[in-house]
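Deliverable D4.2, example record:
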Amino acid sequence: MSSDPSAFVDADEAAKMASVLQFLDGLGIPYTNFFHPHADTVESLLQQVEHIAQQHNASIAKNLFIKNKKKGTLFLITAHHATKIELRSFSKEATGASGGNVRFTGEDELQKRLGVRPGSVSPLGLINDEEGKVGIIFDEDMMRFEHILLHPLINSASTMIK
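Output generated by the structure prediction step:
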């Protein structure tokens, strides 16, 4: 863990992250950044930031970007990392699709809609959804926490917001 971004973030990643931080600044949302080795999975992210989450009463976000195959609608599900998400039951309730009609989106769709690659998915990516095509669903369990830790469009940093 480092406060020095140069150890983990290249110039392209720094530019992506800067766009998110500028957005948060514009809304007056305070944040704290933590830099760490790339964390492509929730399990690897837990190794990097679980101690921070415990110190700050923060939820570590797990994000699923899904698509209703029939309707083409897109949803970003953001949940506490320990929440088990059953896509079959979730899909009918939240998207109106039967369990077999919801799937994870591909890398091209992630890049097009959220401006991220797999392993960097975050609700902060919605700043890139200029057409407003992505619906967002937050896990209510996250409301038990004082903060949330999210990727700022890159997976070598975590941004904590209140």
